[in-house]
Amino acid sequence: MVDNSVESTGDSKNQFVSNNTNDKVFLLSYAEAILYFASDEARIKQPTQYAKSQGAYVSTNSASKGNGYWMLRSPFAVRDYYVKRVDYNGEVDRSRYVGNTDTGIVPALWIVF
Question: What distance, in Å, lies between the first and last C-alpha atoms of the chain?
Answer without folding.
Answer: 15
